[in-house]
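User: What would this chain look like folded?
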Amino acid sequence: MQAIKNVISDVKKLGQEGKQLQANLAKLQKALPAVTEYQQEVTTLIDKWKFKDQHRLDRIQEIVEKLNKRFK
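Assistant: Here's the prediction, encoded as structure tokens.
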């Protein structure tokens, strides 16, 4: 009899956890557009930074290459 009560309790608990999982999935799906928008904004900022500083990065790379050749 106790085994049946444990099974019933476990099934109820599983049902509650399933409902909680569905609620959490709904929250995640609701948040997804904001996350996607944030990701796009970050990508845009990175692209702007790369474009803005590319000439500096190219110059630094030239200096590093010259130093590497010089000290080999």
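The mean pLDDT is 90. If you want, I can go into more detail on any region.
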